[in-house]
Amino acid sequence: MPDFLLSQLLVSVTLIIECWAMQLKNKNTLLAALSVSCFFNGFHYLLLNQPTAGYIFLFSSLRFLISIKFKFQWLAIASLSVSLLITVSTYSGLLSIIGFVATIFITVGSFSHNDKFLRSMMITGGSLWFVHNLILWTPVGILVETIFVGSSCVGYYRYYIAKKATKPLP
């Protein structure tokens, strides 16, 4: 099976997981689901000869699991440092930079205690990964980020905008 086709099959697993994940209210379950999706997404990028994105996503799989239990800011800084090290050691141009900047937003959000902030950071980071995937031209990867950002916006709306609108006035 050609690497491109295999990469698209792997990222399809990510697509299925992320369609469901951003609708979850429980932040720990959401982060666990994102951990699994990052694992498949990482191998998708490695098959497309994108080592920065691939290793960042594989590391992100571990980072999401860590952030379920620990919310220490020093862990966020350590995670960003590892992502920067990955980016510098695998640098291949603009896509490496976009991927790292996207990772900054997602990492900061994942170590936050605030679910609303987490979701806004996921929307921003996911939007940058969308641009990354568009430039790389990974069709299922583009669809993943489109659905991820769209689903994140829907989840944000459901939990923070619609709820506010339905509260009775004093």
How would you portray this structure in words?
The protein is mostly helical. The chain has one domain (3-166). Helix content is 85%, strand content 0%. It contains seven helices and no strands. The chain has helices at residues 3-21, 27-47, 51-69, 73-90, 94-110, 115-136, 139-166. Helix 1 (3-21) packs parallel to helix 7 (139-166), helix 3 (51-69) runs antiparallel to helix 4 and helix 3 (51-69) packs parallel to helix 5 (94-110). It is globular. The mean pLDDT is 92.
What is the total number of structural domains? 1
Largest sheet descriptor: none
Q: What gross morphology would you assign?
A: globular
Determine the structural class based on helices, strands and strand pairing. mainly alpha
* Helix fraction bin: over 70%
Low-confidence stretches: none
Mean pLDDT: 92
Beta-strand proportion: under 5%
N→C terminal distance = 63 Å
Continuous helix count: 7
Order of helices and strands: HHHHHHH
Work out the radius of gyration.
Answer: 16 Å
Question: What descriptors fit this protein?
Answer:
single chain; 7 helices; 170 residues; mainly alpha
Short description:
The chain is an all-alpha fold. It contains seven helices and no strands.
List the helices and strands and how they pair.
Elements: H1 3-21, H2 27-47, H3 51-69, H4 73-90, H5 94-110, H6 115-136, H7 139-166
Helix pairs in contact: 1-2, 1-7, 2-3, 3-4, 3-5, 4-5, 5-6, 6-7
